[in-house]
Design brief:
19% strand, two-stranded antiparallel sheet, two-stranded antiparallel ribbon, alpha+beta
């Protein structure tokens, strides 16, 4: 989110509140992101050898503007949010997440389990394309595990990681367009 419908802000006496220009909650800029994180790895000297950050990808597409406006002329390439369906989620896993895991993972001999919550847009654990992509290139098996509803593993991400990511993104100001929002979230990650 670039802003929230109801946001509590604590101000120092004499500090002016930030200017929030969103007129209605239906006009709040929203983009879904797919974040892949893992447990950090340390060596015997307690030095971090792998920070656990695999990547973060926005669910957006680039389209040509059909009509001009005060913000851009017709024919300009602009980004639009994409709904997270089974097809888009599967494409992101196969084209972005699995290649990122294979380039950043420190130990290729270890089995890798991708945890997902039970959303209807998420793919099945035994999907043949996922199994083929996970075992390609002399890798041990990359498997999928769907967590039950209200699982502590997935709730922890929702309640801590993504909220901390959002508050860090807000420290960079408010974005008024999708490219600005992506430019704020990526370094915050």
């Amino acid at each position: 989110f670039s802003t929230e419908d109801d946001l509590s802000i604590y101000l120092v006496p004499g500090e002016a509140p930030p200017n929030r220009l969103t007129g209605h909650k239906s006009h709040i800029l929203k983009v879904m992101f797919l974040a892949a994180i893992a447990r950090p790895r340390y060596d015997e000297a307690r030095d971090c050898t792998f920070d656990g950050k695999i990547g973060i990808w926005p669910f957006v597409e680039s389209v040509v503007a059909q009509q001009g406006s005060i913000h851009h002329p017709a024919g300009t390439i602009e980004r639009k949010p994409v709904g997270v369906t089974l097809a888009t989620y599967k494409r992101f896993l196969l084209e972005k997440v699995i290649p990122a895991i294979k380039t950043k993972w420190p130990d290729r001999d270890r089995d890798i389990v991708i945890q997902q919550d039970g959303a209807s847009s998420h793919m099945e654990q035994k999907d043949p394309e996922f199994i083929a992509a996970g075992t390609a290139g002399n890798w041990n098996i990359i498997t999928m595990l769907t967590q039950p509803a209200q699982s502590p593993d997935t709730n922890q991400l929702d309640l801590t990681f993504f909220r901390a990511l959002q508050s860090t993104q807000w420290n960079n100001g408010f974005a008024w367009e999708i490219d600005g929002l992506i430019a704020q979230v990526t370094p915050a990650y």
